[in-house]
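Re: weekly structure request thread

Next one in the queue (478 aa):
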Amino acid sequence: MGIKTSAEYLESLKKLKPTVYIAGEKVEDVSTNKFFQPSIKEVCKFYDWTNDPEKRDDFVYWSSLINEEVSFWTHIRETKEEFVDLLKIMKKNNARNFCSFCMGIGPCVFWATTYDIDQAKGTNYQERLREFFKKLQREDLRFCLGVMDPKGDRSLKPSEQADPDLHLRIVERKADGIVVNGAKMHTSTAPLAHYIFCAPGGFLTEEDKDYAVSFAIPIDTKGITFIARPSPCPLNATQMSNPASIRHNMVECLTVFDNVFVPWENVFMAGEWEFTDRFIHYFSSYGRPVKATCISARTDMIAGAAALIADYNGVSKASHIRSKINDMVISSEIGWGCVMGAVANSVDHPSGIPIPDISMSNAGLYHTRLRFVEFLGMLMEIAGGVVTTMPIEADFRNEETRPLIEKYFKAKSDIPTEDRLKLLYLIQELTASRFGGYFLSSAICAVGTPETNRLEVLRNYDLLAQIENVKDICDIKT
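Done, posted below.
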């Protein structure tokens, strides 16, 4: 019962009636709307993996919550070994499929926060979260994350904004629940999920306690509006011209809450501002190694593409090209090594989940994501300017122009021109397309920016201990 098929997922999607706008139009049925088809295909792919005999060992787990098999995306990782397993699956899978929808870890880290609040305040938030996860697992439901607020003027706290709704907030407390107003940004694939899970986007003070709110509700709850951005996959995508975006194609959303009622059983934080720092700490500890794994895997992809196009072009032995590819490999290994080190140095939280080392994981992500930007440029350099000037697939399929393209886009004599074109189209998508911009943005901005990585490393690194070591070496007593 905890594992659905993609057909069952599509049927469940038809039963939902969210308020959705995309490309200037209101959507009556996301399951049939043309702009959502590429993204629906991707979500269906995740359901298909759990039902694929060759992939189920990676994407099916046994849940101690419901004593049934559950999917990769609803499972709580309770040990270091399970978290390492998740990361290894991502490392292997993302180098070929771009994405494993890793941000499913979001509610998992709230597992620790709700425990902390309950212990200090005598609340029952974790029991509510536990029951929510049981529902997700039994029905194999999908959720999207709403963490980032619009923020408005970044120099002002949420309660100081000219418009109080620029951070999601509680506007009314009732006997049976709360009412919220505001919005969340970057809610990936939101209209294709069953639930949206919201949590605070930053540290809060007592003056901002109404903004300390976390909950999960169905996406078609009254008062929620999704303004969606089409995925970077063209509507007429083909395997040859769009080998990247045809595999990774999420719609992104602005999600607006207009006096939305949330019943207490779905509320996991309501005013406990002093615990927002813990949530951000836990989220960083989990989200940064996950993202570093993703960037490492995508760097592996870039290294593979660079090596292959260098071979096709007949320049694989050039020392400067070998050096560039070597840099890609080293960066990928550094990021992956930091991820494994962060998990190895995890601290077991009393709620039952491991909390990875925050400094090590942030250092790994900071290094890999900045080098990743550099490597995209290297990949384009190795492939050549043809990446942005080559004919489109339609001309290659035209009987009159194909012979000319076959002749003049030939490189090494033993490599079919079509194979070289396929690879060049991939490199074009990665480096010089709308998808390329999305690909780059997800590396730089997802789960916080490089500057947040720097701050977390500095905040958590014991620099004073190193100062004392140097003083000891120098026999400095003061």
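Residues 6-275 form a domain with the Butyryl-CoA Dehydrogenase, subunit A; domain 2 fold (CATH 2.40.110.10). The chain has two domains: 6-275, 289-468.
Next request, please.
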